[in-house]
Amino acid sequence: MKITKIELQQKRRRFNLEIEGKFVCSVSATTLTHYNLYKGKEITEDEIQQIVDKEVENRFFDRAVALLSARLKSRWQVTQYLNTLFIKKKGLWFGKDFPNQVGVTESVLSRLEKLGLINDHEFARAFVEGRIRSRPRGGSQIIAELLSKGISKEIAKTVVYEILPDNDDMIFRVFRKKYPNQTLDLKNRKQIDFLLRKGFDWDDISKLSKQLKDDSQE
User: Would you say the pTM of this structure is higher than 0.85?
Assistant: First the structure.
């Protein structure tokens, strides 16, 4: 197979690489030099795939690092981001028939994990601590939120129960924020529904009711 065109991209220091008249991917000047690529050069399919995989992987890796530099993400969230990016960049960064999306994604995720940029346990811990500070709620609801972000049930439960061994303090804070001057009435459907929506169960609510009554009698 033969390289039929190497064209400098407008506004970028990258080059479009065409093989047998077909766009394959964009490459950096470093790659051109490293592989000694030039128009008319004969190149094997294995060499082409090696170049393309590494170029695509590096570009996706750079985007993932930029994403994670702004805020921690779960492994699942980064995977979803990369899958969306593949759709957006198809035909721009690489040819539309690029065959190795799964392999590149897994390689990028592996590199991020080795660098400590992806760690679902640390993500879950930071998420729970953030919820405690800014949006307190029951452990069951926090677990549900972690599951929605792709965290495994095992990690979600371990972290939540480690940081929140019980809901006593949390439910008190949630109730007082919503009802600063009221007592908890177990017959008040509005109060009960509010606490249930926040992830507390009936045992938590009953204990809070007793606690508030005891406090008022002191």
Answer: no
